[in-house]
């Protein structure tokens, strides 16, 4: 393992610096890559091309880091989220266009009704909560969840 570390450390670290543009993140990424390599070596699996394995592991670690970052960014806890979400006029037009295709997105009944009442009928969250016999915080969550599912569907 020492030979692999000595041979690839500078290459992996330089690659990590280019990916992260940050010394601390590059160090973390490099450490995670070598930890994964070490764990792979402990499995006693036959390695045909060491160079290919190391770069595959590095790219997989980077992919997981980016995926987790996106997930954390998109899933800000509702306590920290701006619950007074205010869309601009264009957002409302886009959401009204999407209403016709909501059946394909896989929304729950509450998400579907909240989304439709909010964007088509222009009801307030308070009015929707009364109409659906649910708390305002639940309605905010249903709208948040529905928006996430819509964005996910249309980002594909």
Q: How would you characterize this protein structure?
A:
- The protein is built from seven helices and no strands.
- With 156 residues, the chain is mainly α.
- It has two domains: 2-74, RNA polymerase sigma factor, region 2, helix turn helix motif (Rna Polymerase Sigma Factor, Chain: A); 89-154, Winged helix-like DNA-binding domain superfamily/Winged helix DNA-binding domain (Arc Repressor Mutant, subunit A, Orthogonal Bundle).
- α1 (2-20) runs antiparallel to α2, α1 (2-20) packs parallel to α3 (50-74) and α2 (23-41) crosses α3 (50-74).
- The chain is elongated and about 65 Å long.
- The model is unreliable at 76-87 (pLDDT under 50).
How is the CATH topology of the largest domain named?
A: Rna Polymerase Sigma Factor, Chain: A
CATH evolutionary superfamily of the largest domain: RNA polymerase sigma factor, region 2, helix turn helix motif
The parts where pLDDT drops under 50 for at least 5 residues are: 76-87
Could you say which overall geometry the principal axes of the C-alpha atoms support? elongated
H/I helix tally: 7
Secondary structure class reads: mainly alpha
The amount of beta strand, in percent, is: under 5%
Query: Any idea how many domains?
Result: 2
The largest pleated sheet is described as: none
Distance N to C terminus: 41 Å
SSE layout and pairings?
Blueprint lengths: L1 H19 L2 H19 L8 H25 L14 H10 L10 H11 L5 H7 L4 H19 L2
What's the quick description here?
This protein is mainly alpha-helical. It is built from 7 helices and no strands. It has helices at 2-20, 23-41, 50-74, 89-98, 109-119, 125-131, 136-154.
């Amino acid at each position: 393992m020492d030979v692999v570390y000595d041979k690839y450390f500078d290459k992996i670290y330089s690659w990590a610096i280019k990916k992260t543009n940050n010394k601390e993140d590059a160090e973390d990424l490099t450490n995670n890559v070598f930890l994964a390599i070490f764990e792979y070596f402990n499995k006693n699996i036959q390695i045909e091309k060491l160079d290919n394995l190391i770069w595959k592991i590095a790219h997989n670690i980077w992919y997981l880091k980016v995926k987790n970052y996106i997930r954390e960014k998109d899933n800000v806890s509702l306590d920290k989220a701006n619950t007074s979400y205010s869309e601009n006029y264009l957002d409302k037009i886009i959401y009204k266009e999407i209403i016709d295709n909501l059946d394909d997105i896989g929304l729950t009944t509450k998400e579907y009704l909240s989304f439709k009442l909010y964007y088509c009928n222009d009801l307030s969250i308070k009015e929707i909560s009364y109409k659906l016999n649910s708390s305002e915080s639940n309605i905010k969550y249903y709208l948040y969840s529905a928006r996430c599912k819509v964005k996910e569907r249309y980002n594909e």
